Amino acid sequence: MIDEEVGYITALQPDVRAGTRVDSLKALLADGYDAVFVGSGAAARPRPRAPRPQGSGEDIHIGIDWLSSVSFGHISKIGKRVIVLGGGNTAMDCCRSARRLGGEEVKVVVRSGFEE
Description:
Strand content: 5-15%
Order of helices and strands: HHHEHE
Mean pLDDT: 81
Low-confidence stretches: none
Distance between the termini: 31 Å
Helix content: 25-40%
Number of helices: 4
Strand order of the largest sheet: 1-2
Radius of gyration: 18 Å
């Protein structure tokens, strides 16, 4: 199915650069493109509806959005103590990125037991 859907797009003969790291969307636009589509492969998920705790400021992040900000250089440091909620691939990527950005105590909290 993916090959079929990609075929619809490639039939339009766009400039496709698969497997290419994008460091700056501004640089691509400066190259004369009118629009840029980045298909990173990360599926969109429903956003949590929990309200932010009073006084939390910008310290609570949605994992995939935070990883994107780290990748594009919008975030270059983090506090020393970090909690990551969830145990999937995105959560583990957040843990590794938090450590690289200076997190000394990075903990993972999941609802399921160790067997799962």
